[in-house]
């Protein structure tokens, strides 16, 4: 195998004149001058932050990112006003939203979904322009999010049906239901700015909590079309949005001690810092999805073609910018040469371009510092004996980086340890199967692993150690989050709490019960309350 150069070679031109963009994908600048506070879209006349697309436009001065619009750059004052609105709406559990019946909350959520769907075309377009997500992936993210909300509604119906009866034990009668926790601070990542955030926000909301919604740094404008849907569908103060620099506006919120749940998807370093700011740590529940350096293990008994195809999907879907991406590939030395050669050829054939172009799989990157970071990681590996194996691997132009297959990688290189979160595929040759197991044992993360082998005994021997090292073991397929009904979590520094359609409802609530001694007078009392529908908690109604 020979090192390939990173010149443009046969790569097509990615960035084109703005006039060449098809009319149906052109976008009008959106200058947002309002934010959602206490049930109103409040005007903003203060400083703003410009939002630029990863899509660059060729100019006389070189490539320049296209301006998409701007958003409010709010201050700690506005963030604390939002906190006060959420606290007041919850009202120690006495507010309209937390005391509303499950059926009532479901109707509000159904109204939100209806209003959300009206904005489908614009949100998809903004996902393409803001974070470089392909048309197919942006469409899938929106539609999957709608499906997730509907699945959550169905799951809540099932949960409520299970709780719609009284239980008797040891002379006591009780009804056990799930109750909200309080104010939830929801913060999500740029790579799935709609779907990932909604996988915490939606279950937290539908369980009766009130929400502080911190918009991501990238992928922020795609939420603007949905603000009115939140306003119209839910009682005032139930959902409040936060804009601005996280380190400035989130710190005073956490320091107040008024946040009951931190729902955060991002780095463990940031999550740890936020938790330490809270003065009442025993009151704070944390639902976290954090760092991951998911490994693939390709043994000599693998179907190499299957492994190559799945590793490409796992490593390079949305340019490798997924927490579930395969970020390190261990390949048994006997098949390392053929695997790397096939993988490099397949990666070289991937079509780069702009998000709306047909068949495009590699698109520009939204993070300003990402191309330089990836180059530094590749250069570090090359300086220590690795090579870039694919044609055009690591080629950079503006915000665009073509994927690089790097081989052989070892534990002295940054790519072995750091989560690159971008289009670089490190391959580590190994002799003994104990080597990738030892890697996972010593790793600070523990989200997923993918095992590629057709030997049943070998697969079985790897399943048993890895189920105690990571939260999901994938056999002959890429690492991934879906289906959303499956639990999604991680060990070590990768997660806290569990998310899925079902688990999330439980994560954002607590079991609460009403109990009484089983006497005739108490039975009559409870029957009267249920019959007259005097309580939203005590109820035997069956939601269809």
Which key features would you list for this structure?
single chain; alpha/beta; Aldehyde Dehydrogenase, Chain A, domain 1; disordered N terminus
Could you please describe the fold and organization of this structure?
The chain is α/β, with parallel strands linked by helices and 544 residues long. The protein is 37% helix and 22% strand. The protein contains 17 helices and 25 strands. It has a seven-stranded mixed β-sheet, sandwiched between helices. The chain has a six-stranded mixed β-sheet with strand order 10-9-8-11-12-24, sandwiched between helices. Helix 10 packs across helix 11 (333-348). It is globular, with a radius of gyration of 25 Å. The chain starts with 29 loop residues before the first strand and ends in a 13-residue tail after the last helix.
- Portion in strands: 15-25%
Proper CATH architecture of the largest domain: 3-Layer(aba) Sandwich
Tally of contiguous helical segments: 17
Q: What's the CATH C level of the largest domain?
A: Alpha Beta
Biggest sheet features: 7 strands, mixed
**3D shape:** globular
Structural class: alpha/beta
* CATH fold-level topology of the largest domain: Aldehyde Dehydrogenase, Chain A, domain 1
């Amino acid at each position: 195998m020979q090192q390939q150069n990173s010149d443009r070679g046969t790569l097509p031109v990615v960035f084109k004149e703005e006039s060449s963009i098809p009319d149906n994908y052109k976008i009008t600048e959106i200058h947002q001058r309002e934010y959602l506070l206490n049930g109103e879209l409040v005007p903003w006349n203060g400083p703003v932050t410009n939002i630029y697309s990863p899509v660059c436009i060729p100019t006389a001065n070189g490539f320049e990112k296209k301006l998409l619009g701007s958003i409010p750059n709010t201050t700690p004052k506005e963030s604390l006003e939002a906190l006060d609105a959420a606290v007041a709406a919850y009202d120690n559990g006495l507010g309209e939203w937390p005391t509303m019946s499950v059926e009532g909350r479901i109707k509000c959520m159904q109204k939100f979904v209806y209003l959300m769907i009206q904005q489908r075309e614009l949100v998809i377009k903004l996902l393409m322009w803001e974070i470089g997500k392909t048309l197919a992936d942006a469409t899938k993210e929106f539609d999957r999010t709608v499906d997730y909300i509907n699945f959550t509604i169905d799951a809540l119906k099932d949960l409520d049906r299970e709780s719609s009866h009284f239980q008797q034990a040891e002379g006591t009668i009780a009804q056990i239901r799930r109750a909200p926790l309080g104010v939830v601070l929801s913060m999500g990542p740029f790579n799935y700015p709609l779907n990932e955030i909604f996988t915490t926000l939606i279950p937290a909301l539908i369980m009766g909590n009130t929400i502080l919604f911190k918009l991501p740094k990238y992928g922020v404008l795609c939420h603007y079309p949905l603000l009115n849907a939140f306003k119209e569908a839910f009682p005032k103060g139930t959902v409040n949005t936060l804009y601005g620099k996280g380190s400035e506006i989130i710190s005073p919120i956490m320091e107040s001690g008024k946040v009951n749940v931190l729902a955060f998807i991002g780095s463990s370093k940031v999550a740890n810092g936020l938790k330490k700011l809270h003065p009442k740590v025993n009151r704070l529940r944390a639902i976290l999805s954090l760092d991951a350096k998911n490994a693939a293990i390709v043994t000599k008994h693998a179907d190499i073609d299957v492994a190559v195809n799945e590793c490409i999907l796992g490593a390079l879907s949305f340019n490798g910018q997924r927490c579930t991406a395969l970020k390190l590939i261990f390949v048994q030395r006997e098949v390392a040469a053929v695997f790397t050669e096939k993988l490099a050829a397949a990666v070289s054939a991937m079509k780069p371009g702009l998000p709306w172009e047909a068949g495009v799989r590699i698109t520009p990157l939204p993070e300003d510092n990402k191309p330089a970071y990836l180059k530094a990681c590749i250069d570090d590996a090359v300086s220590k004996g690795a090579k870039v194996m694919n044609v055009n691997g690591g080629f950079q132009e503006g915000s665009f980086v073509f994927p690089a297959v790097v081989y052989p990688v070892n534990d002295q290189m940054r790519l072995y340890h750091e989560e690159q979160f971008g289009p670089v595929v490190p391959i580590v040759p190994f002799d003994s199967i104990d080597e990738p197991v030892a890697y996972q044992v010593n790793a600070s993360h523990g989200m997923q692993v993918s095992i590629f082998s057709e030997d049943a005994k070998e697969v079985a021997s790897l399943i048993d150690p890895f189920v105690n090292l990571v939260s999901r073991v994938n056999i002959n397929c890429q690492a991934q989050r879906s289906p959303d009904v499956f639990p999604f979590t991680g060990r070590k520094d990768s997660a806290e709490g569990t998310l899925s359609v079902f688990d999330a409802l439980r994560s954002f609530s607590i079991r609460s019960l009403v109990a009484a001694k089983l006497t005739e007078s108490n039975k009559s009392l409870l029957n009267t309350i249920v019959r007259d529908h005097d309580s939203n908690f005590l109820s035997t109604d069956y939601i269809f």
